[in-house]
Write the structure tokens for this entry.
Amino acid sequence: MERRHQGSLAPNGGEGKGEGGRSSGRARGLRRRQTDSERVLWQHLRDRQFLQTKFRRQHPIGPYIVDFCCPAYRLVIELDGGHHAGQIRADEQRTAFLMQRGYRVLRFWDHDVLAKCDSVLQAIELALSHPHLTPLPRGRRG
């Protein structure tokens, strides 16, 4: 049962856990209605199973709700279904927004998660093992 959240735009522009009731409620609903590929990847990322790293799913960042986020490494993972081929510009804007806030964004096609999950996990491990090359925005440095 594939379900895709179109753009995952949160109405309040809040960033982070617990900010804005509507955003949190929408994220909670998306967690309940996850796609098959989200379910498969979450089984590997949840409960610090993957490199003892904390991931959140359907995490609000600004006006968006990202599929997966590792706040400690400022890493966002987005899973794209077939409809994303028709919204390349919107995805580019979303990625630019996240990068301006100091996040790295990895995008994977749903079918790659389902058919080649080991390769997807290797790419995530590689991203976590290399320091963030983009400097964080002002006021957010360690």
About this structure: The chain has a mean pLDDT of 79. The chain has one domain: 21-129. Helices lie at 21-32, 36-45, 88-100, 110-115, 117-129.
